[in-house]
């Protein structure tokens, strides 16, 4: 079961701060409204009620979206006309106390005191005469209608993250290495005397060695595919709706009857 909480602020900044606090407390932003949605020039004529018939600023029409009593709608329209900012939040019953505490902490005004002050200034407000010119007493019979809507909620999620894993790998490779040896061996044989006998000579012997060269190539071995599937289900929503009944006690001798709408 949900209920609508209404609060008024003198400053739009305070109202916006209240909305943010409600959202941070866990309420859905779609269930919170601020009226008027933009700044509108306020009225300086306090001699009479806001003209709901003309409704030049649209206050009366914007309040029709809510199931407010008629006298409250007159008061709320007058408050909006005088520059107040209205914040409404549709909350579950177990969240109502938390939402009220947030709104009161952020400076919501006492609308009952404001209404009393306006009436002293001459504002008439909503006048319920309780009957017509013919003397007929009228009791409105009110009945609630249940409206079922849908909203998206999180129903779990899957997160896939890729990361790098390093694994040691060892391979064996044969490498060739050359060494240069210099050896002096004693000999005893006759030398041929000639031009080359006493020529200076240089021998440059290079030792060649092999070393391992490591190269790596990346290949795709497997793929991970993340997909979603959607199915439909039928859910039965059970709630209660209210209505007002009237019981007529006929003291003229006829049997009393009960009328309902």
Tell me about this structure.
There is one protein chain. The chain is of the alpha+beta class and 261 residues long. It is 21% helix and 11% strand. The strands form two sheets. The protein has a three-stranded antiparallel beta sheet. Strands 4-5 form a two-stranded antiparallel sheet. It starts with a strand and ends with a strand.
Total E-strand runs? 5
Radius of gyration: 46 Å
Query: Strands across the major sheet, in which order?
Result: 1-3-2
**Overall form:** rod-shaped
**Structural classification:** alpha+beta
Overall pLDDT score: 76
Q: Roughly what fraction of the amino acids lie in strands? A: 5-15%
Helix tally?
Answer: 5
Low-confidence stretches: 129-135, 253-261
Main beta-sheet annotation = 3 strands, antiparallel
The N- and C-terminal alpha carbons lie at a distance of: 23 Å
* N to C succession of SSEs: EHEHHEHHEE
Helix content: 10-25%
Which features characterize this protein?
5 helices, 5 strands, disordered C terminus, 261 residues, 3-stranded antiparallel sheet, single chain, two-stranded antiparallel ribbon, alpha+beta
What are the SSEs and their pairings?
Elements: E1 2-9, H1 12-24, E2 32-35, H2 59-63, H3 70-81, E3 85-92, H4 93-105, H5 111-121, E4 245-248, E5 257-260
Antiparallel strand pairs: 1-3, 2-3, 4-5
In short:
This protein has 261 residues and is of the alpha+beta class. It contains five helices and five strands, in the order βαβααβααββ.
């Amino acid at each position: 079961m949900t209920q609508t909480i209404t609060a008024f602020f003198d400053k739009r900044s305070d109202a916006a701060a209240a909305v943010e606090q409600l959202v941070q407390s866990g309420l859905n932003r779609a269930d919170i409204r601020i009226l008027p949605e933009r700044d509108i020039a306020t009225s300086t004529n306090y001699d009479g009620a806001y003209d709901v018939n003309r409704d030049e600023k649209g206050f009366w029409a914007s309040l029709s979206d809510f199931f407010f009593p008629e006298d409250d709608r007159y008061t709320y329209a007058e408050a909006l006309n005088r520059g107040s900012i209205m914040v409404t939040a549709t909350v579950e019953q177990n969240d109502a106390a938390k939402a009220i505490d947030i709104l009161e902490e952020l400076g919501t005004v006492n609308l009952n005191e404001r209404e009393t002050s306006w009436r002293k200034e001459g504002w008439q407000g909503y006048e319920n005469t309780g009957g017509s010119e013919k003397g007929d007493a009228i009791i409105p019979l009110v009945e609630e209608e249940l409206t079922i809507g849908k909203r998206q909620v999180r129903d779990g999620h899957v997160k896939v993250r890729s990361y790098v894993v390093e694994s040691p790998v060892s391979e064996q490779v044969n490498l060739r290495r050359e060494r240069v040896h210099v050896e002096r061996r004693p000999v005893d044989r006759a030398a041929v005397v000639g031009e080359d006998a006493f020529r200076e000579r240089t021998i440059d012997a290079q030792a060649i060695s092999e070393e391992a060269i490591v190269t790596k190539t990346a290949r795709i071995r497997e793929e991970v595919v993340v997909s979603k599937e959607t199915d439909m289900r039928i859910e039965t929503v059970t709630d209660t709706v209210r209505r007002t009944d009237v019981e007529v006690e006929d003291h003229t001798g006829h049997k009393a009857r009960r009328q309902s709408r």
